[in-house]
Amino acid sequence: MSFLQVSRLVKCFGATRAVDGVSFEVRPGEIYGLLGPNGAGKTTTISMICGLLKAESGEVVIDGTGFWTDPSRARRLMGVVPQEIALYEELSGRENLEFWGRLAGLAAKEAKQRAAELLEALALADRAHDALKKYSGGMKRRINLGCALLHRPRLLLLDEPTVGIDPQARLKLLEFIRDLAASGTAILYTTHYLEEAETLCQRIGIIDQGRLLAEGTLAELQQRLGGRHLFQLEANLAGVQPDQWPGFAQQFQILQRSDRHLLLAALNDCDPAAGLKALLALPVQVDNVSIKRPSLNDVFLELTGRALRE
Fold first, then answer.
1. Which regions of the chain are under pLDDT 70?
2. CATH for 4-222?
């Protein structure tokens, strides 16, 4: 049973179709990753889900009720963590949390108690009374997350929450997010960091140019390449047209190329040893060939023809 259902969302800005018929769902206790490069439509999609933007068409259903049927109820059920940190630098971490708790409708006593709980959970209790301007980037990100959790939302929307923080702070934040999902919270997580999506998310949707190109578990997405091994070939390829080599196009699909490298998917469930033998027999001086398992970036290359981080 899904907690969030997004159906055929469309959003245009002038002649630009920023989101083009996007549909997916997020279940209780699930982290659903919306993966794509900058400008793919991730933030616009989240903005429509939380009501900051209204779609030209399509529907957002939260816990069985359309968002615009009862916006107040929908907003009570969700917490939103924007990509840009929305905090007051002169206030302390505790004061920021209490302020946002009151805005979420909590009574003063409840906001104070809940802020103390979150400071402890976020490992910031010892810095509770320090002004936010004295916090590191990772600590601010944790407070930013805490502000969305004051009212105990059952759906959490996270828009690239680890941008610009160091690896240690990122690990702490990701572990906290895993714990939230384990407690039953439905989480929509947008990112363009491959390693986060691969290790954090139960299911992943790949979005680019406003369209959801594919979704599924990591294993299901890898199956788009037939579960095949990929080959990385290093050679002098300047001016070379691999597709013109006899039999090449019938054996391999080019996912990415440069003057020095080819990333290839073998066709027809080619045995890895047979693939290596065929590549070493190509009419070009091969400097190196290696085998790798498909990654999310490889799937993205297969779908769009360009690197995920572009």
1. 225-228, 269, 305-310
2. 3.40.50.300
